[in-house]
Amino acid sequence: LVSTAPHDLTCQDAEALVLRVPAIRRVAPLVVGTAPAQTGERSREVTVIGTTRDLLEIRHMQISVGRFLPADMPDAAVCVLGARVQRELFPGQNPLGQLVRIGDWRFRVIGVTAPRGTSIGMNLDDIVAVSVETGLRLFNRTTLFRVLAEVNSHDEIGRARLGALEVLRERHAGEEDVTILTQDSVLATFTNILGALTAALAGIAAISLGVAGLGIMNVMLVSVTERTREIGLLKAVGVTHAQVTAVFLVEAALLATAGGALGLAAGLGAAQVLQHVYPEFPFQPPPWAIPAALGVSCSV
Hints:
The chain is of the alpha+beta class.
């Protein structure tokens, strides 16, 4: 749920969703901002998330050290560090019980999340989590950034969406001033974007294949012209026209396939490098792509 005003999206709205929409299992309100985090002489800019303990379950996060935000102390000045923040602020140290200054506030570290990478549009290894009430006061806000909701099953997404809209419309004086984004809609958007990119790359590849085919044809014509004597010698010893044609075709196919194999090796090597740099993004080609690449090279 993303607030679009004029009414604030509040923690009470989030609680109402759980109480009044049976399809919703749990919710996690979010307040997001950036602030400098400092401990001793070390300091860096971090993304601060004000939330509740339910975020741990909704985003399937794991705790490597300590515990997550307590449910029974919403106003406690405690925080949970992301894995990368912990490495940079407390390298080689146990951060539990240590104090961290975030903006003008001081927090005691009670936990560190396990490495997770990017999710919900942010790097969860690069965050500091505090309670949602503390986050609102820290950034002087009255409205939530958004509310994450988890449904009981995938089949109930539609009912949960309609129920959430009805509850919030009632609480917001009859105005539909929130936008509900489901994972299916986000996934469909990304699929459309990737489909357009794939089509564009396929068009570029088709042009490249056309240019390469013309290049190979010209090389074959030059090769035939330069080897007229060799062809005449073959004819003189009884080689047929079909056999001479087969010799040149096989030679061209071998050269093209060898070029395709070199290009394929370069592509796979580049994919391995990118996979190492961006481990959260899948760079492996589909199983059919490798024999298809060699087949296209040979057929061209």
